[in-house]
Amino acid sequence: MYFDGNGTFGKKIISKSIKLFKKIGKFIGETVESSVQYTKTVIKDFKYYIFATTETGVQIDLDTSTGKVFNFSINTPSNPWNFWEYSFGLDVKVKGVGFGVGIGGENSLSLHWKKSTFSVFGNALGRIGFETKTDINDYSSNYSRLSFNAPEILAIGALMYFAAPVLIPLSFAAFIITTN
């Protein structure tokens, strides 16, 4: 390495470092954004089963995203008291293809493919499930969602576990009495 007495080497290092940081800053400015997303859901069909729920409808998304490659988002529900719908997310999309991760009241992993999104999720209420969305336009999408109700499954399982030792002998005794 050559060091000269007038500091030319040091000036070149500083100059090249500044150019590098400007390129990095330009890249970040062109590809990274943060946004707030507000979703209003209009449910067309909702069915509740003991172990699962299904719903279909339209979601209207109002967000501040401009479509950059990396989007850090805060997702808010249409009803502020739905605490299980708040989350922080990261979406990475290149030409409509990518993935997303959401962490918070609803944790999710998503795959984006052109105008469709496929997600698996688990939320603070104990629901786990799958959702598909297909964009209608820039602000709305059709969606279908299947969620399994872990609290109900656990409650029925616990009821069966604790009630079975009592109910089985009683039902057997009732059967014997009614057949004699």
If you had to describe this structure to a student in words, what would you say it looks like?
The structure is a single chain. The protein is α+β, with helices and mostly antiparallel strands and 180 residues long. The chain has one domain. The chain is built from two helices and nine strands. It has helices spanning 8-31, 150-179; strands at residues 32-48, 52-63, 70-77, 87-94, 97-104, 106-113, 116-123, 127-135, 140-149. A nine-stranded mixed β-barrel has the order 1-2-9-8-7-6-5-4-3. The longest helix has 30 residues, at 150-179. It is elongated, with a radius of gyration of 27 Å.
Topology:
Elements: H1 8-31, E1 32-48, E2 52-63, E3 70-77, E4 87-94, E5 97-104, E6 106-113, E7 116-123, E8 127-135, E9 140-149, H2 150-179
What would the keywords be for this entry?
9 strands, 180 residues, 9-stranded mixed barrel
